[in-house]
């Protein structure tokens, strides 16, 4: 059953269309990542869902209720829908505990104490409760921000690239913890990011946005194996154009290297990466440069190699 319903939402800034006819239905507790390059309209979308920006057209419903925009509602925004962004500001002179307590001031003391304690435990922040934000790591600060947003038990959490300031290790850890926690709470989550890798770690369900338009929606495996355009395909990995074939591409992981065959090239560069060597190979035909994974780290710069692939791995991408 639909819980959050976004119907034909659009936004233009002067004559620039930032979001075009965006519709989406989410069930309660569902997780979705929206991936798109910078400027594709992600923040605009989330601000309108949260009732923090006046749309040019369309509407948002939470259950039966219309989300009113700042022109319709005296105090913009809703307790039920919380938006967290990269530069989310904690109160610098308040402790962790006080920060999390802030949104709860209208509730009675006993409830507040219980709620704050529970969040401190859930986020593993008990030992930090008396610290000020500047005495925490970036990851911990972001946790406090999210705990603060969850204090009033919002039904929908909108995450606008909240991990951008964190290093890769902090980020992975926080995404993992957050995923468990939010599932447990039954929160409905929309996560927007330009980083497909982060999206894959948080959700199975993806929506790809390009220049304010939805270009594809589905689960991660489906999108990786059956991208509808080069833009979607390239979010997952580089793609190599097959010589003399129109619109036909291969991913670096789908090319096999042999010592004989038809399609010949030379290794011109080699990068040692965690799970494989990444090779740049100059094809004899047409001088194309291909990026190819060498998982057994067999080849060196200068080697002559022959490239093989299965026909079923070929991506035909017309746009
Ligand atoms: P994203 O979050 O995906 O980077 P945004 O929603 O911030 O994208 O922006 C979408 C488009 O709208 C961009 O081209 C951006 O330049 C434009 N835009 C965003 N905010 C404004 C604004 N206040 N005034 C004019 N143009 C804006
Ligand atoms: Mg943005």
UniProtKB/TrEMBL annotation:
CDD domains: ABC_Carb_Solutes_like. InterPro entries: AAA+_ATPase, ABC_SmlMolc_Importer, ABC_transporter-like_ATP-bd, ABC_transporter-like_CS, ABC_transpr_FbpC, Mo/tungstate-bd_C_term_dom, P-loop_NTPase, Transp-assoc_OB_typ2. Pfam families: ABC_tran (PF00005), TOBE_2 (PF08402). The keyword Transport applies. One of its GO terms (molecular function) is ATP hydrolysis activity. GO terms for cellular component: ATP-binding cassette (ABC) transporter complex. Keywords: ATP-binding, Cell membrane, Ion transport, Iron, Iron transport, Membrane, Nucleotide-binding, Transport. Residues 4-236 form the ABC transporter domain. This is Iron(III) transport system ATP-binding protein. It comes from Algoriphagus aquaeductus.
């Amino acid at each position: 059953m639909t819980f959050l319903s976004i119907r034909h939402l659009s936004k233009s800034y002067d004559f620039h269309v930032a979001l075009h006819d965006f519709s989406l239905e989410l069930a309660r507790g569902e997780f979705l990542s929206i991936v798109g390059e910078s400027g594709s309209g992600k923040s605009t979308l989330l601000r309108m869902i949260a009732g923090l920006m006046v749309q040019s057209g369309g509407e948002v419903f939470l259950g039966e209720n219309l989300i009113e925009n700042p022109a319709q509602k005296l105090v913009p925004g809703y307790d039920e829908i919380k938006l967290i962004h990269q530069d989310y500001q904690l109160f610098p002179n308040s402790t962790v505990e006080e920060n999390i307590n802030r949104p709860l001031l209208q509730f009675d003391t006993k409830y507040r104490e219980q709620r704050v304690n529970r969040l401190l435990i859930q986020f593993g922040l008990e030992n930090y409760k008396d610290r000020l934000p500047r005495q925490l790591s970036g990851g911990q600060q972001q946790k406090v921000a999210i705990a603060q947003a969850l204090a009033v038990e919002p039904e929908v959490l909108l995450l606008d690239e909240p991990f951008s300031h964190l290093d890769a290790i902090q980020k992975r850890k926080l995404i993992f913890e957050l995923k468990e926690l939010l599932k447990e709470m039954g929160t409905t989550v929309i996560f927007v990011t330009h980083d497909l890798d982060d999206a894959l770690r948080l959700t199975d369900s993806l929506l790809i946005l390009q220049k304010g338009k939805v270009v594809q929606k589905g689960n991660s495996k489906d999108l990786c194996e059956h991208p509808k355009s080069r833009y979607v395909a390239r979010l997952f990995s580089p793609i190599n154009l097959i010589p003399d074939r129109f619109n036909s591409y291969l991913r670096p992981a789908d090319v096999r290297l042999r010592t004989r065959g038809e399609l010949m090239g030379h290794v011109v560069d080699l990068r040692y990466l965690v799970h494989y060597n990444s090779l740049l190979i100059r094809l004899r035909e047409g001088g194309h440069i291909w990026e190819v994974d060498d998982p057994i780290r067999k080849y060196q710069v200068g080697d002559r190699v022959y490239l093989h692939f299965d026909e079923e791995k070929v991506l035909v991408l017309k746009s």
